[in-house]
Amino acid sequence: MKVLMVSGSTSNRLQQVLYNQYNLSVGFAIQKYYKLMEEGFDRNGLEIEALSIVPIPKADAPFSFCRFKKEKERNVYYNYVPYIKFAPLYHSLMLLMIMWRVFWWSVKNRKDGIVLCDTLIPCRCIGAAWGSSLAGGKRVAWVTDMPGMSGIQCLHYEQMGLLGKIQIRCIKNFSAYIFMTEQTNIVLNPHRKPYLIMEGLVDPDIDMVNAVKKNATRDILYAGGLNESYGLGYLCKAFMLLKQNDIRLVIYGDGAYKPDILKFASLDTRIEYRGTATNDVIVEAERKATLLVNPRFSGAEYTLYSFPSKNIEYMVSGTPIVTTRLAGIPTDYEHYIFTFDVETVEGYAETLGELLEKNEKELREFGATSQKYILENKNAKVQVRRLLEMADKI
Fold first, then answer.
1. Which in 103, 111, 331, 359 has the greatest CB count within 10 A?
2. Per the structure, how many domains does the chain have?
């Protein structure tokens, strides 16, 4: 089988060049996600081709036009679409270049080729869909986010512009799908074509580390965006209702709710705001904490179509996680997470109090079980093998 991955993936070399020479970031989180997918193909013995629109913010780019050379890194042959800053023509040109290249690749690899497209960007999605369709090729839509969804806002079809509506129609014309939630499948796969749920991937080489010496204080840790809609106000108020002196609420991240977090920290010295930090620092803090918390409210519509990647990151650490019952979390996670069943300040406080009553051994064993589940079932090799098995049936 031959695979063309149409996305925003870039080589590690190009990432370094853009950052060191131009101070440009191509998105750490999404690049990590792409690299895990590429690693999964490698672990399954496949070299792949990557056709990429380099995700450079137009406002930050110091150049108006740039070509990127073809290159190979590990098992991936990278081929980049030229960067064009001229806004009025940008989307049309990207769409046409993607369509042209996908068309000819699909013609040459019609017998055993699969186009895997991250459908997040409309011009990338439409170009890949049209190019593959014109060539009679097989195509898999990798739906990393619901079209029309921005942050916590979710636009319905009738609210979208022309490009968004064409994007939706194109997604429905793919041969098979990778979704993050079952609810997304219901909306975007009305013809019941083959699909699989892939809510995340983890590094196959991560070691199971659970015997980490915990902090002297029992830390409840949150790491992520600071927005009121993520339940952080309820979390801080709930924590302040707890009476234990040997506990801390540790918060990493940045966002609009930062001033409120600082205000809570001034009212209760057990609340520590540590700002932003490198991934290594946060991972180490997660391993040494007693509980990891995701207090995001479950009632918002966008939770139907997204899986909180934070939960997988937490579970890999070996420290127990407590989260709300978000609609996008598959039922097979139920045995590996603690949950806030009542989404009020008092409900959060009651759940945290109950969990802090558990002894360290019990919490360690629960965390280790969760970690084992994630590493065995959600690692990149296993997830990509599922993709390849589905692609064989198209």
1. 103
2. 2
